[in-house]
Amino acid sequence: MFPDFDPVAFHVGPLAVRWYALAYMVSFIIALPIAKRLNRLSPEVATKEQVDDFLFYAILGVLLGGRLGYVLFYRPMDYFSHPLEIFKTWDGGMSFHGGALGVILALAYFSWKNRLSFLAFADRIVPVVPIGLGLGRCANFVNGELWGRPASPDLPWAMIFPTGGPIPRHPSELYEALTEGVLLLCVMLFAASRPAARERFGFLSGLFLFGYACARSFCEFFRQPDANIGFLSGGTTMGQLLCIPMALAGMGLMVYAMRRPAQVSAHV
C-alpha cells in the first residue's frame, strides 16, 4: 500500500510549504554551487556573480514555462474554457518540456544581455538540471500522483495508490527519479569533467537533451498516461511524442559540436 504521506512538509505560521515546492527550493540550493564550480572550469564561461544572477531567470523560466507548457501540451481546452484556472498552481500541473523551453529562453536572453556564449553557458548549467528532475519526481511520489501502469502483483515494489484504484501499479515516479535524476546527473557530471566535452560548445547541452529524451521515453512505458489524453497513435504517449524533437535536437547539437574545433574562450 502507498504510504500515507502528508503533502505538506511543514508550516511557517499560516503558510503551508508542500513537498513539491520544497523540492524546487532544495534543487536550486544544491545546484547553484555546483553550477558555479562548473562555470569556473576551463575554458572559463561566467563569473560566480553571473551564475547567481541567472538563478532568478532560471526560476522564472522553470515556473512560467512549466505551467504554460502543461496548459498548452496537456489540457489546452480545459484551461482555455476556464483561463483563471491557469493561475491555480497549487492544484498542480507542470510540464518538464515547457519548463525546458522556459529555461532555454532564459539562457538565451541572459547570455545576450551579459555577452556570454549561449552554448558555452548552457553547457555549464544543464549538468545540474537532473538534480531538480530527481527531487521533483520524488515529490510526485510523495503526493501520490503520476503513478504508473498496472503491474504484476508478484512485482515486489508494485504499489496500490490511493487514487489509482485497487490494482497494484508501477511506482513510475521513482523510476523517473532514478533515470532522469540520478543516472542522468552522473552521466552529465562525468561528461562535464572531460575537457574535450567542455571545449566543444553545445555538446553537453545536446547530451542532456538526448539523455533526458531517452530516459523519459523509457519511463513512459511504465507510467500511466494523463487521463484526459490517454494513449496516442501506436500506443505512444504525449511524453514520448514531446521527446522526439528533444532527442533530434540533442543529436544535432552533439554532431554540430564535435565537428567544430575545440574552443579556448567562451566569451563572445
Give a description of the structure.
It is found in: Cell membrane. Pathway: Protein modification; lipoprotein biosynthesis (diacylglyceryl transfer). It is a multi-pass membrane protein. Keywords: Cell membrane, Membrane, Transferase, Transmembrane, Transmembrane helix. The protein starts with 7 loop residues before the first strand and ends in a 9-residue tail after the last helix. Helices cover about 60% and strands about 5% of the residues. By secondary structure, it is mainly alpha-helical. The protein has a two-stranded antiparallel sheet. The model has no long low-confidence stretch (mean pLDDT about 90). α2 runs antiparallel to α4 and α9 runs antiparallel to α10.
Short description:
With 268 residues, the chain is mainly α. It is built from ten helices and two strands.
Keywords:
10 helices; mainly alpha; globular; two-stranded antiparallel ribbon; 2 strands; 268 residues
- Approximate strand percentage: under 5%
**Radius of gyration using CA atoms only:** 19 Å
Count of DSSP strands:
2
Kindly report the average pLDDT value. Answer: 89
Count up the helices: 10
